[in-house]
């Protein structure tokens, strides 16, 4: 992509108008409701990811490397309580969330947004005691709408497939500029800094060798917040060419008209979205025919290229388990669900799951590959022990606009992930406070009351 002139272009003006001046009353009620539901869904994953190894390491590292001597630039880490810098708090929460692959995503970006947006709000809101619920939801919406278009613009104008941190850092900047009361020029410089330093890491490298790097979103949050503070102190970096280059302009034309916030997908399972359609195909057949694992002789999965590249063996780590395909399919066949316990600890060496995996084969199918990334499709064939051959037909992964989960299902998912870590009372209190944010009289402080205290072991 060719860098434009240093003078702001109309596309930037459109983005600044939207990020800094669009109030809750200028956003459809349905969009704000979607923001509240995505916030709740993300918070369930933030909580559930806290005790996991990657989350523990991320928070400890934040205390070692990302502290602050200035109370105005520090914040408590989510569900931990220790105080670090603004950038450190956002980094820690985003990193731990990124390592439990159950958070929302947006198909056209091939990545994730809430993973940085909710930690950014939770971090900055600590300095905004009077923040209203609708204004908090408007800030969330700004983060999603800016991040989503930045991701689409990036992938449309460069050759590689980058992790989400490469572009969701720009949504962090937009939120921070809004919530910290910064002007247009400061925001513009921060966007340029963040885009320049955003982690343009290769997603398929992580798919090939899964680790705790995941989708780069911890660094996206760190870079975005750091860039805002740098710009506030006079550091320059504009322009962000995914926003200001002429070839990027088409990807921003519908900002404030088409609401990406309402088109995110919710994950029923805490694994890579690419494996969901395969699991859903198995689920559909098993539910329709009343099958258990004992009834199944063979399973064959057809899916798109990227899904077929997911890990095929018994995963030795949680990171690999979340970027696998036969393993989560087998876990669902065995237990009718996929929870944190199935992708961590003893679940990684479950003998029943390991045995079921020997019955599963996977292949790439061109018709599914051509529909990626707009869709994540698969079809499944199950051969039963009594000789029946049962087919799912083409299945799109559940949870997005094509096959949405109901509001009650999303709330139930949140409770399923949050209660084991937070306890019934705290999880329910957080749930109720988040869902009340659409009320004009609500305050984010009611949510904050449940966010920062350490989890009781």
Automatic annotation (TrEMBL):
Q: Molecular function (GO) terms listed? A: lyase activity
Q: What is this protein called?
A: 2-methylcitrate dehydratase PrpD
Q: What sequence ranges are listed for the domain MmgE/PrpD N-terminal?
A: 14-242
Annotated MmgE/PrpD C-terminal domain ranges read 269-436
SUPFAM superfamilies reported for this sequence? 2-methylcitrate dehydratase PrpD
Which InterPro entries does the record match to this protein?
MmgE/PrpD_sf, MmgE/PrpD_sf_1, MmgE/PrpD_sf_2, MmgE_PrpD, MmgE_PrpD_C, MmgE_PrpD_N
Q: What species is given as this protein's source?
A: Ruegeria marina
Its family remark reads:
Belongs to the PrpD family.
